[in-house]
Amino acid sequence: MGENTDYIFEPLSETDVDEVERIEKESFSEAWSRDAFTDAIGNEFHRIFCLKRKGEGENELLGYIGWAVVYGEAEITNVAIDKKFRGHGYGNVLMEKAIAVIEKEDNKNVFLEVRAGNKPAIGLYDKFGFKEIGVRKNFYRFPTEDALVMMKTIGE
To answer: What is the DSSP secondary structure assignment for residue 4, as one 8-state letter?
Structure first.
């Protein structure tokens, strides 16, 4: 994996929606619809950013992250890396860049939910200072699984 200067982190645009929807469907049993992503574009309370690797001509979409913002707090709604790019540290780049934007927007806390059995994601969130603060029993379906609720205080 290259330096952060090798990447573009930018808001979701109409031209990215098809790829983001494909990654979403490959990543989650209960995926967001294309309309949900399209509706998020320009929404004052929701952000979706794409991580792209700079390339000759077209930049390659590696993954995306979305969060909602309400009263100085952010809730991460979805995070996914394209299957073909997993295991190469792109999740670290995605989280680093997203947390920087969230902090710049003067949010004080960041929350998220993650499947209790998703050890790679939990490890990533731990690395970025998220702490488990609760459990939502049987939160996920297909398969049914608990969600860990995690929180990070910005600046810690």
So the answer is: G
**pLDDT tens column, 73-128:** 999 999 999 999 999 999 999 999 999 999 999 999 999 999 999 999 999 999 99
CATH number of the domain bearing residue 26: 3.40.630.30
**Cα-based distances in Å from 2 to 16, 54, 88, 93:** 22, 10, 10, 10
Q: How many domains does the chain have?
A: 1
Residue 155 pLDDT grade (very low, low, confident, very high; cuts 50, 70, 90): confident
**pTM tops 0.85:** yes
Is 113 among the catalytic positions?
A: yes
Catalytic residue among 7, 90, 125, 140: 125
Q: What amino acid occupies position 140?
A: Y
Which is catalytic among the residues 21, 75, 113, 140?
113
Write out pLDDT tens, residues 134-147: 999 999 988 999 99
Give the structural domain span for 90. 4-153
